[in-house]
């Protein structure tokens, strides 16, 4: 009897909702569940959809749940456009929460008004989160939500409604603000018996403070999916729990579909990411530009640092967050602020991954050389490519597939107590048939018809403004060889150098690699070394 009643309330609410809701047949009953991304009548919205008019540009109220590794405590990565993939996220941890803010408010318009992006790598490993909105940052209203779990801990999109993370990475779960009005109205009718008392009372308390045409805050709260948490009807929710390193919701972004119009001409700020800094550097000069030409204002949001105009001075190790803003004038509307986060540490580091030749489809294996300037072990993962490709995170043995396609590897080094994380490095290559025109050939065969690439040398500065030397050379992806850079002060004791890659340009099968060496690292002499891969 209860299931029949639940159907009646959901159908009533959907009839007056502005959102596009799908009601598939689930046995003998109807539920408000849309299918997974890519299937007909799915509500999933791709990150590159022209529907999006803006993105979250600030955050507050961050509380990490249990089990989060420090490398995933990166809330600034939840700001701006959704990236997709697995790494450009902030991990909330089991039971964690974060509030995203919007300098240009979300408004209640036609159909869906905003969407939440998570990083699930498939359609079933979905780490769910409640979604709440506010107009004042104090009173929050939670969207009605429902989960019909058949498999404990393994939710699927077809059985999730009103929760973030319904869809895999690159696809947003959309929300319609008018549904909150519908649900609030239902709280004062006989249909209220089909909402839990806790949910209905909370909504009745906070909804009068909500302006559906001026939503400035969206809060995400991770659902601890062990059955102890309940949906808005009071049924237990199950999803993956106790995941190592990055448990709970992994938030990529919140995109806005219906946005309150600006008063004035829109403007935007270009503010490049700030590299991690060595404490001994003491300070740096910030640089950002507004496309209106108006001056940009900087402010330290958190961390042991102060700024005087564009000069930022840091006084201790730790994470520093800086916001660039432009308040507008009589002609231009305020720009969306841009937040940048970086770490100040005793030491900084970078990664060098040897360029890889194309590989022949074989199912064999090859070892990838990767080093960090700190001497700490580099970790590798397959970022993209055929599903059968894998790599040992620490032993760097790449197991090739019996499939052809492009493979992208991600190299990362999370740092330690004294050393900041290294910037991620991505390398790619092709797995090809042995008869393909771009199939690799032995180094000796390649050298018989091709001269060794001669390096071009130029003076430059590194990312921190220090003197550097740029070594540029071209590699053919058909050359099955390894390349190393070595330096010596007297042409006698050559030692390997861990240079910093500053560019990799592909043109057909030829790759131009620019390697940046600080003057200190490059020494007086250096050379390229090649050996069989």
TrEMBL record:
UniProt keywords, alphabetically: Signal
Tagged with keyword Signal: yes
Domain of life: Bacteria
Leader sequence residues: 1-20
Name the UniProt record assigns to this protein: Uncharacterized protein
Species this protein is from: Pontiella sulfatireligans
């Amino acid at each position: 009897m209860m299931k029949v009643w639940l159907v009646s309330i959901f159908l009533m609410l959907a009839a007056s909702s502005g959102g596009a809701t799908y009601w598939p047949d689930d046995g003998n009953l109807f539920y408000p569940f849309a299918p997974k991304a890519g299937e007909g009548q799915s509500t999933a919205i791709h990150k590159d959809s022209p529907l999006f008019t803006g993105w979250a540009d600030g955050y507050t109220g961050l509380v990490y749940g249990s089990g989060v590794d420090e490398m995933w405590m990166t809330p600034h990565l939840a700001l701006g456009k959704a990236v997709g993939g697995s790494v450009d996220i902030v991990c909330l941890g089991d039971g964690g929460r974060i509030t995203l803010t919007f300098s240009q408010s979300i408004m209640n318009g036609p159909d869906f008004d905003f969407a939440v992006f998570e990083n699930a790598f498939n359609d079933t490993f979905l780490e769910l989160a409640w979604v709440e909105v506010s107009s004042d940052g104090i009173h929050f209203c939670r969207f009605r939500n429902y989960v019909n779990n058949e498999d404990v801990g393994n939710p699927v999109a077809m059985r999730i409604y009103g929760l973030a993370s319904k869809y895999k990475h690159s696809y947003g779960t959309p929300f319609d603000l008018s549904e909150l009005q519908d649900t609030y109205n239902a709280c004062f009718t006989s249909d209220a018996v089909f909402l839990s008392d806790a949910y209905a009372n909370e909504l009745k308390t906070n909804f009068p403070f909500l302006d559906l045409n001026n939503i400035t805050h969206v809060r995400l709260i991770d659902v601890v999916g062990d059955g102890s948490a309940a949906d808005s009807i009071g049924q237990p929710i199950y999803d993956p729990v106790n995941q190592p390193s990055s448990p709970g919701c992994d938030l990529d972004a919140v995109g806005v579909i219906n946005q309150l119009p600006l008063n004035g001409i829109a403007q935007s700020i270009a503010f490049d990411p700030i590299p991690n800094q060595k404490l001994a550097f003491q300070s740096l000069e910030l640089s950002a530009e507004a496309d209106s030409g108006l001056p940009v204002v900087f402010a330290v949001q958190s961390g042991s640092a102060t700024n005087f105009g564009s000069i930022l001075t840091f006084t201790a190790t730790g994470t520093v967050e800086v916001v660039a803003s432009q308040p507008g004038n009589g002609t231009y509307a305020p720009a969306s602020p841009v937040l940048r986060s970086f770490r100040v540490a005793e030491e900084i580091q970078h990664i060098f991954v040897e360029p890889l030749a194309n590989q022949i489809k074989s199912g064999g294996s090859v070892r990838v050389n990767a080093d960090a300037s700190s001497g700490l072990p580099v970790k590798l993962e397959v970022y993209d490519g055929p599903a059968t490709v894998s790599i040992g995170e620490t032993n760097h043995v790449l197991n090739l597939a019996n499939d052809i396609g492009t493979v992208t590897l991600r190299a990362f080094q999370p740092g330690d107590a004294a050393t900041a994380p290294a910037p991620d490095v991505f390398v790619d290559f092709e797995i090809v048939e042995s008869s393909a025109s771009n199939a690799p050939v032995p180094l000796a065969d390649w050298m018989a018809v091709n001269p060794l690439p001669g390096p071009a040398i130029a003076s430059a500065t590194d990312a921190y403004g220090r003197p550097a030397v740029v070594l540029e050379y071209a590699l053919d992806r058909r050359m099955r060889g390894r390349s190393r850079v070595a330096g010596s002060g007297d042409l006698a004791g050559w030692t390997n150098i861990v240079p910093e890659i500053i560019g990799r340009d592909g043109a057909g099968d030829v790759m131009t690699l620019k390697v940046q060496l600080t003057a200190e690292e490059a020494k007086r002499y250096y050379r390229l070394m090649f050996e069989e891969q």
